[in-house]
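Blinded run. Sample ID left blank on purpose so nobody reads anything into the name before looking at the predicted structure. Input follows.
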Amino acid sequence: MTTFSSKSSGQSLPAGQRLSPADYQTNFADIHTPLDARSAIVEADRCYHCYGAPCQTACPTGIDVASFIRMISQKNEVGAAEKILSENIMGGTCARACPVETLCEDACVRHTEGDQPVKIGLLQRFATDRASELGAKFFTRQASTGHTVAIVGAGPAGLSCAHRLATLGHEVVIYEAHEKSGGLNEYGLAAYKMAGDYAQHEVQDILSIGGISVKHGVKVGEDITFAELQTNYDAVFMGVGLGANKEMQLDGEQVSGAINAVEYIHQLRQAKDLGQLPVGQNIVVIGGGMTAIDIAIQIKRLGANNVTMAYRRGKEHMNASHEEQEFALSEGVHIAHWAQPVSLQVKQGVITGVEFKRANIEGDETFTTPADMLFKAIGQSLAPIDVGAVEFVKHYGKYEVDNELRTSHPGIWAGGDCVAGNDGLAVSAVQDGKLAALSIHNTLTQSQI
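Blinded prediction complete.
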């Protein structure tokens, strides 16, 4: 079972005051203590190296977990990293932010009463970090194929696709609307999960293969058309993620103090001075997924006094894992279940509270929670993109793709959060990018690999 270590200063703010720089540094330090060489070997030796290991089956990218752990136990950290990165080029990020407690570690045969699973996530981080420290390089480009591919979006799916295509000898151009590459790894993950500048460090490692150029600040559909992409490139991959934020559909929802959680996390991740971010005293977070957990904990660590997460269903229905929910509780976040928001209380144009209906009982029983800030974390949808004459089949507002990530439009592939059926995990987006790259390569070269 994954454990989350709380390093928060535990302080909250009197009205009008801010935490010290030292408190911010403590509160947003790395949430996990990395393994050192000795503890990594001790942990690796706990692995049974199962035949047909269930942990590998549980990994969306199919990493040979038992093999890389055996390499660590043999003091071959670089070999372990190569084993990881050959399947998941963003293995360093996934070791930090992947919900291993519901994936590989949950499947570990040692995950039984009276025992605990092997710390696969920490072992993966140990190997990838060690290889990076040593400057190990595992990938070289094959001879040029003469083909070019356009990728829309420099998030996990786009970067994964670009890297695999580059290794196969294709020239790749990524179009990214933001100023930095990385997608949610750079802009959306909780700062204590991706401490420092790790997301950019990983991006540079990926781009170092060569054959990949990134055009930042370019919006496809506005600055360049889909028709131009199809004319200028042999194939197109869509890794656009989800850019439109869902609303609660309540009157007065755009009132001052009602903020989209994703947008606030974006600001937090890019802030040079956390003391400049707006922080209320009484916070309500609407939602039950990872974004809701991330914003609730982070606003608490920024100094908010009272933070309440409100979810319309029961604990067992929340998308956030049990471990993440317990971590939020340990940070002083209150979680209110079966709480359906029905109206906002507003005074002089500013939010003062949220009225809820109890969703698990008959009748109209309501209760009100004071709030000077409200964070909406109820999900995202595919942002409108001007695709011109291109037509895509969609399912629940996302792109329909086949088992090779091909869209309904010839020559265009898609992967990550923007495709129907995706689970919203970075590790799944990485796998989509990898599989799409292989399909694109096979289509362009008429070869099978």
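Unblinding after everyone has recorded impressions. The radius of gyration is 23 Å.
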